[in-house]
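# nightly structure sweep
# worker-07 picked up a monomer target from the shared queue
# config: single-sequence mode, recycle default, output format = structure tokens
# input follows
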Amino acid sequence: MFSTEQLLQYTRWSGYFTLFCAAVALFGWLLKWGIRFRLVGVTGFMVVLTSGLFALSLGFHSHPIIPGAVRFSRVFDTGSTELVISVPPKITETELEATLQQAAADLYSSGRLSQGTDKMTIRARTVLHPEPGVSQPIYLGQIKRSLLSRSDDQMTVEIYRDKLAQLPNWGKG
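# output follows
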């Protein structure tokens, strides 16, 4: 997997080669070489390649992997500051905290609307079925992170231990 710095370096070198191709194409036009049209095509291709590399370097980032996080799915997203993820009912407190941190890293986007606040709130919930045909959603915790910075050191995690105690087999094992 390439880093943003590597992609910017490839973009820089591709840009240099594009300028070289443009200079050779211009030189070919001035001297009326027979391959001048091909040189224009090569230059055009290099412009497209360079701009593609540059665009990829702008949007390319890797998500950190938080140890202990379990798989989650996004069940509600306003596109701004409120999200809800679903976690399995057999989750421990440490797994829940790691999963909330993983969700905060994965679901962050600089394009989210702030709507008057600079914090994004991600709530974790699970669904219990106390009897057939009845579903009971239980919110287990939440994390608040900054919408302004990708690397947020001030994330606040809140775990609802009373709700975790309602889970089957919680605390055993």
